[in-house]
Amino acid sequence: MAINFAFIEGKYNGSAISILGRNKVSSQIREMPIIGGTGIFRFAKGYVLARTHAFDIKSGDATFEYNVYVIHY
Fold this sequence. Notes:
This protein is an all-beta fold. It has one domain (about 1-70). The chain is built from no helices and five strands. The chain has strands spanning about 1-5, 15-20, 30-40, 45-55, 60-70. It has a five-stranded antiparallel β-sheet, with no helix packed on it. It is globular, with a radius of gyration of 13 Å. The mean pLDDT is about 95. Homodimer. InterPro entries: Allene_oxi_cyc_Dirigent (IPR044859), Dirigent (IPR004265). It comes from Thalictrum thalictroides. Its main location: secreted.
């Protein structure tokens, strides 16, 4: 899975964190690496813990929680 968290307000406005990794939905908690970012998060590293709170197979709607642990310079 590839995902970018883009910030649009506050001191992180215009910056983003990039995540790339396996998101095995059948696992209760998934760990994925932060591979970089833009703006204030340039050269960022860290990891994300993802958890599924709800998933509706019929509609495809889902609610996820992402706990992000990031180091940036």
